[in-house]
Amino acid sequence: MLQQTWTSRCLMKFYAVVAASPASWESHKIAERIEQRILNSNPVMEAFGNACTLRNNNSSRFGKFIQLQLNRAQQMTGAAVQTYLLEKTRVACQASSERNFHIFYQICKGASEDERLQWHLPEGAAFSWLPNPERSLEEDCFEVTREAMLHLGIDTPTQNNIFKVRRKATSLMFGRDDGQPFS
């Protein structure tokens, strides 16, 4: 678990305990649900916002702001998480020994044969924007990301739409722009 994730979790747990009235089991359960939902967002944010850099295999390339929402009795009633990419250029360009965002490797390594067909990802394809695919990292776990997306309410059809590589983009990645199928 990332240090920032661990710190966020500790602070939320502390606040949930301090803010929840000892007599209010309901407010404690609400705080726990909110905390769990925020924590479930981490694998998704890491997959889409972290990359392997020269210094760190799981370097955060995004910023995150967590706002806890309280009622008049200072009990946690909700939360909002705002994220923003710090390094948008990573999608198109990385240093020679670095990798792109984790999600691209997760998809290529974790997609089933049927998903690869549905998402227009030929088996064994080499993508110019996906350097160092032979490196395996703990962060390459696609199932963890997909499960977290389900917990956040992103259903399987929506996930499939997110992971689908558009035909024009796929053609350009392989140096073809004639729209013909790959052989």
UniProtKB/TrEMBL annotation:
Example of a GO MF term: ATP binding
GO-annotated cellular components: cytoplasm; membrane; myosin complex
Domain Myosin motor positions: 1-183
Keyword Hydrolase attached: no
Domain of life: Eukaryota
PROSITE patterns: MYOSIN_MOTOR (PS51456)
Gene Ontology biological process terms in this record: actin filament organization
Keywords, comma-separated and alphabetical: Actin-binding, ATP-binding, Motor protein, Myosin, Nucleotide-binding
Entry-linked InterPro entries: Kinesin_motor_dom_sf, Myosin_head_motor_dom-like, P-loop_NTPase
Gene3D superfamilies, sorted: Kinesin motor domain
Sequence similarity: Belongs to the TRAFAC class myosin-kinesin ATPase superfamily. Myosin family.
Name this polypeptide is given: Myosin XIX
Native species: Pan paniscus
